[in-house]
From TrEMBL:
<dbReference type="Pfam" id="PF02782">
    <property type="entry name" value="FGGY_C"/>
</dbReference>
<dbReference type="InterPro" id="IPR050406">
    <property type="entry name" value="FGGY_Carb_Kinase"/>
</dbReference>
<feature type="domain" description="Carbohydrate kinase FGGY C-terminal">
    <location>
        <begin position="253"/>
        <end position="431"/>
    </location>
</feature>
<feature type="domain" description="Carbohydrate kinase FGGY N-terminal">
    <location>
        <begin position="9"/>
        <end position="244"/>
    </location>
</feature>
<dbReference type="GO" id="GO:0016301">
    <property type="term" value="F:kinase activity"/>
</dbReference>
<keyword id="KW-0808">Transferase</keyword>
<keyword id="KW-0418">Kinase</keyword>
<dbReference type="InterPro" id="IPR018484">
    <property type="entry name" value="FGGY_N"/>
</dbReference>
<dbReference type="GO" id="GO:0005975">
    <property type="term" value="P:carbohydrate metabolic process"/>
</dbReference>
<dbReference type="InterPro" id="IPR000577">
    <property type="entry name" value="Carb_kinase_FGGY"/>
</dbReference>
<dbReference type="InterPro" id="IPR018485">
    <property type="entry name" value="FGGY_C"/>
</dbReference>
<dbReference type="InterPro" id="IPR043129">
    <property type="entry name" value="ATPase_NBD"/>
</dbReference>
<comment type="similarity">
    <text>Belongs to the FGGY kinase family.</text>
</comment>
<dbReference type="Pfam" id="PF00370">
    <property type="entry name" value="FGGY_N"/>
</dbReference>
<protein>
    <submittedName>
        <fullName>Carbohydrate kinase</fullName>
    </submittedName>
</protein>
Length: 473
């Protein structure tokens, strides 16, 4: 890793919490005791809504900086970096005030589009890395236009940047998560804008990776130690997490487990391999892209099960990895594009009176592992070799059983990132050109575990196919 002196302030804009933490600039590791967290509780509705109150969110984040200031942690800061959730959108009025809450990635509301037979979605996907799916602004914005009378649109990180520096801008990384970016040029895609029904001037301007801003006078007075400190453009959390785990080239896939899960590979944008239909591609920065697959049920499902089943501990330690018996298809939160399985489609099959809370938890974690493995095998094929794997994120850090399960399901060794704050670490690495290493344990799959998972996989795939079919009934 490239070494730097001083300290960094990282802001992590998550779905379940916002965090402000101080990092050692030498290795982007957290400074002990210098972390403040504001818990986020999205509001979910029967209409498919999953929203955040933008005012509450931003004020909570600012209170985190106040907490660090009170602890004396905002002295000697050399840069401010941000990692952020992708895909969010807010409709704004002529004064830039929010007309809607923050519509998050988990929100399933949108509008159907009929673009006729002349629209080539394969070419659109290859160019933007996205699909015409409810996750993206190409379908979100027409829906918001039908519900309100907005003048412009922005994502949560764009509004946070505007609040801090007084200027609304976005990064190439954040813009790529909207589904409206031409990945090759790093500018808004004209066809995507036409589909969304807006001009580029109604969206935040895209700044290059090397751009920096400074805190406005209001916040310079509030946090004197941050006067003149450069604020770097935000990095989408998926890209930041990859780099933060140490998976920052095309030899290595990162598997990260937070609220959701993902498997991704970072690679140069120039001469990138042709994008398969089932994978997405976003930007890391001006020179790199990240290709992968994401899954809506992971840490959120683990937390839900722990609560619903009233587990005394959150590890199914008495259950063998790949054990026969109950099988769980983890579609509780639906699927990400291009699949269209709605939320509420989770399945348990093979239940018996012998099953316990632990076997249900184990089956769910195994189901997520098998879903991630589907994506990993697609990436192996895309890059032409069996990829090395790094495991990272809060869910990985919290569960030794899940780490072993993933390793056995992949049937290959894995390295574990020792730092749970991979998003903040990765945002620092992207902004400052650092190359972090995983730094954690090396896991070798147990042969018996691998064999049991291999025997389980055909049954799981058959049940998964049935679950997909049933979700459309």
């Amino acid at each position: 890793m490239t070494r730097t002196d001083g300290r960094l302030l990282a802001l992590d804009l998550g779905t379940s919490s916002s965090r402000a933490l101080v990092l050692d600039a030498a290795d982007a590791s957290p400074v002990p005791g210098a972390l403040a967290r504001h818990k986020i509780s999205p509001t979910y509705g029967h209409d498919g809504s999953a929203v955040l109150d933008v005012h509450e969110y931003v004020e909570g984040l600012l209170s985190c900086l106040d907490e660090l200031e009170q602890g004396g942690h905002l002295e000697g800061i050399e840069a401010i970096v941000l990692s952020t959730q992708w895909h969010s959108v807010v409709a704004l009025d002529a004064q830039g005030a929010a007309l809607t809450p923050v519509v998050t990635w988990a929100d399933t509301r949108s509008i159907d589009l009929d673009l006729g037979s002349s629209f080539d979605e394969q070419a659109f996907h290859a160019r933007t890395g996205s699909w015409l799916h409810r996750l993206y602004w190409t379908r979100r914005i027409p829906w918001l236009l039908s519900e309100t009378s907005p003048v412009s649109f922005a994502g949560l990180p764009d509004l946070v940047i505007e609040r801090l520096i007084g200027e609304r801008v976005t990064s190439v990384s954040v813009a790529s998560g909207t589904g409206t970016l031409d990945l090759a040029t790093g500018q808004y895609d004209e066809e995507a804008l036409q589909i969304a029904g807006v001009k580029a001037d109604r969206l935040p301007p895209i700044v290059p990776t090397g751009w920096t801003g400074q805190l406005s006078a209001e916040y310079a007075r509030r946090w004197p130690g941050l006067v003149g400190v450069p604020v770097h453009p935000p990095t989408g959390d998926g890209a930041a997490s990859n780099v933060g785990t140490g998976a920052y080239d095309e030899t290595t896939a990162a598997v990260t487990v937070g609220t959701s899960a993902a498997v991704r590979v970072v690679h140069p944008i120039d001469n990138a391999p042709e994008l398969p239909w089932n994978l997405w591609r976003y930007r890391v920065d001006d020179k790199r892209a990240v290709t992968g697959m994401a899954f809506s049920a992971a840490g959120n499902m683990h937390a839900w099960l722990t609560n619903v089943l009233r587990l005394e501990h959150d590890e199914p330690t008495t259950v063998e990895i790949g054990a026969p018996g109950v099988i769980a298809v983890p579609f509780q939160a639906g699927t990400r594009p291009p699949a269209t399985v709605p939320g509420g489609s989770g399945v348990y099959f093979g239940l018996s009176f012998d099953d316990t809370a632990e076997t249900l938890l184990a089956a769910s974690l195994q189901g997520v592992s098998l879903e991630v493995d589907r994506g990993l095998r697609m990436l192996d094929e895309l890059f032409g070799h069996e990829l090395s794997v790094v495991l990272g994120g809060g869910g990985i850090d919290a569960s030794a059983w899940w780490r072993r399960c993933l390793t056995a399901t992949f049937a290959r060794p894995t390295d574990v990132c020792a730092e749970p704050e991979v998003g903040a670490r990765g945002a620092a690495a992207v902004a400052l050109g650092l190359s972090p290493l995983p730094g954690g344990e090396h896991l070798t799959p147990a042969a018996d575990d691998v064999d049991r998972v291999a025997a389980l996989r055909p049954r799981y795939e058959s049940l998964r196919d049935l679950a997909v079919q049933a979700s459309s009934l």
